[in-house]
Amino acid sequence: MELDKATVSDMNDGGMEGIRFIGPVDATYGSSLCEADGKDADGVPLSISINLDKQDNLFELDIWKVDFSPLKRYPTPDMLRSICTDASAQRRASYQPRAKP
Question: Is 24 contained in some domain?
Fold first, then answer.
């Protein structure tokens, strides 16, 4: 999936503004590609994960605020700290989007 051509939808996540990549109807969570943490505009810590489905297609951008309150604004990259594990860093380095048939 080319990111600039991806179709997404809002996740029903209580206003935390996560997004789901539109793919196969039966797609389910497979693994985390990368994770980061930071703080929202109100100072509340948040966690962000880019997740893949079981076929290694982009699945979702999951945003979670530790107090479950709605996201005030999407963080910019300079507001985040990568917390990728060795396994997710290796996975990210070798990630190749699957071509559409």
Answer: yes
Spatial contact of 30 and 54, defined as CB atoms under 8 Å apart:
yes
Query: Per the confidence metrics, is the pTM higher than 0.85?
Result: no
Within 8 A by CB and 6+ apart from 12, the residues are none
Tell me the one-letter amino acid at 4: D
Compute CA distances 1 → 41, 97, 99, whole Å: 31, 6, 6
Specify if 49 maps to a domain.
yes
**Does 99 fall in a domain?**
no
How far apart are the C-alpha atoms of 49 and 96, rounded to whole Å? 18
pLDDT in tens, 19-61: 778 877 778 899 988 899 999 999 999 999 989 989 888 889 8
What is the C-alpha separation between 101 and 99, in angstroms, rounded? 6
Name the residue range of residue 8's domain.
Answer: 3-94
Among 85, 7, 79, residue whose Cα is nearest residue 71 = 79
Q: Residue 30 and residue 1: Cα distance in Å, rounded?
A: 16
